[in-house]
Amino acid sequence: MDNINVDNERNQIKRLCFEGAWAWCLEICFWFCMIALIMFLVKRLFEGPFYRRTNRIDGKVVIVTGCNTGIGKETALELARRGARLYMACRDAARCEAARLEIIERTQNPNVFNRTLDLASLSSVRQFAERFLAEEDRLDILINNAGVMATPRKLTADGFEQQLGVNHLGHFLLTNLLLDRLKKSAPSRIVVLSSAAYMFGRINKNDLNSEKKYWPFFGAYAQSKLANILFTRKLSELLMDTGVTANCLHPGIVRTELMRYNNCLWFMKTMFHLVTRSPKAGAQTTLYLALDPKFDTLSGGYYEYMLRLPLLPWARNQEMADWLWEESEKMVGLKHTHNDENKQTNITSVQVIKDEK
User: Fold this and answer.
1) Model-level pTM?
2) From 181's CA, which of 17, 95, 143, 296 has a CA 20 to 30 Å away?
3) Are strands 302-304 and 307-308 parallel, antiparallel or unpaired?
4) Half-sphere exposure of 29 toward its Cβ, with a 13 Å CA cutoff?
5) Segment holding 201, helix H or strand E
6) 230 alpha carbon, distance to own chain's centre
7) CA torsion 141→192→120→334, rounded to 10°?
8) What kind and span of H or E run contains 181?
9) Which of the following is catalytic: 51, 87, 198, 221?
10) Are 222 and 197 in contact (CB under 8 A)?
């Protein structure tokens, strides 16, 4: 009888361990750990690859636009760490100075400079370029990073729709004003941040300034990002055999201030936090295009996750690229000629990437 009671007590102890509250706790802990593991793996997947080469760029002169925060700041930080003579071109001088001091402290590179550049003002662009050309006799890397996304409809100081003006026209003028210095410094390179949103964009010849109809994201923003790609491809064509390369990229869906104008996207960022990238991860393709030696001779490509991707037909439209270039020249008041006198004969020919039709 006593043995039976002992066995019953043992069975009761086992049931307490694997049934009731204990069982629920164990099951909850198990699934919590599984979900956490899956979340970690998904996060790692969307963060993407990092640029691991340790090549330095000591003494090379670099301009990064819009780099007091987000992707631009992470880009500037890494370039300064690798020895660049870095010009931070930002609209807000106070915030840029704070970022500059932080970068100097973290990298121990004193050659980091704060310069004011408001891409929504062509006058500011010209003033920045004039000052830079007076200060430096070379420019090795130009990174057109700054941008705005899905803003309420506003006009720039020159009367252009803000997203077209900042994302495309401001950088178009800046790049053209600095082209001769880039050619003089060859091999040199231009990196343009675009977006996969170009897929939704079309260049509206009849309403380029979005005066008749304004859609913040799928209209004006997507058009400006498509303009970035067409501009890069046309630029790479014009710069063939000059030793200057031009490539563009999509940084991914990144947690930056670029989303500050769109409440819906902030909500989506909160809900889908796992599929957004950190600013550091978002900067990796920019760093790849800016630093990797092979881009001394590769030009005209579109990249994401450090991979060259094919473009949709409307981003390869040569006729549209030609029209946009000419129209942009008119809009910014630029009459730039590309002549053979500026070409150097002792540099490696540039291989312009041709997308398969």
Assistant:
1) 0.84
2) 95
3) antiparallel
4) 6
5) none
6) 16
7) 80
8) helix 171-184
9) 221
10) yes
- Contacts of residue 18, defined as CB under 8 A and 6 or more positions apart, other chains included, come to 26
Per-state percent for the chain, helix, strand, coil, to nearest 5: 55, 15, 35
Tell me whether residue 221 is one of the annotated catalytic residues.
Answer: yes
| pLDDT value of position 242 | 98
The span from the first CA to the last CA of the chain, in angstroms, equals: 88
The answer to whether 194 and 229 have CB atoms below 8 angstroms apart is: yes
Strand 85-90 relative to strand 188-193: parallel, antiparallel, unpaired?
Answer: unpaired
Cis peptide leading into residue 251 (ω within 30°): no
**Cα separations in angstroms, 154 against 192, 220, 335, 356:** 23, 11, 27, 38
Which residue(s) pair with 245 in the sheet? 189
Q: Beta-carbon neighbour count of residue 276 at 10 Å?
A: 20
DSSP annotation of 151: P
- Separation of alpha carbons 21 and 37, rounded Å: 24
pLDDT in tens, 328-341: 999 999 864 444 43
Residue 356 amino acid letter: E
Mean pLDDT value across residues 337-352: 44
Instruction: Report how far residue 113's alpha carbon sits from residue 89's, in angstroms, rounded to the nearest whole number.
Output: 9
- Least Cα distance to 128 among 162, 171, 95 occurs for 171
Please name which of 183, 187, 192, 230 lies closest in space to residue 338, comparing C-alpha atoms.
183
For the segment 239-295, what is each residue's pLDDT rounded down to a tens digit? 999 999 999 999 998 876 655 545 555 555 455 565 678 999 999 999 999 999 999
Tokens of 323: 């029209």
Say whether pLDDT at 351 is over 60.
Answer: no
Burial of 53 (0-12, 13-18, 19+ CB in 10 A): exposed
Beta bridge partners, 143, equal 64, 191
Phi, psi of 348 (to 5 degrees): -65, 135
CA distance 62 to 140: 6
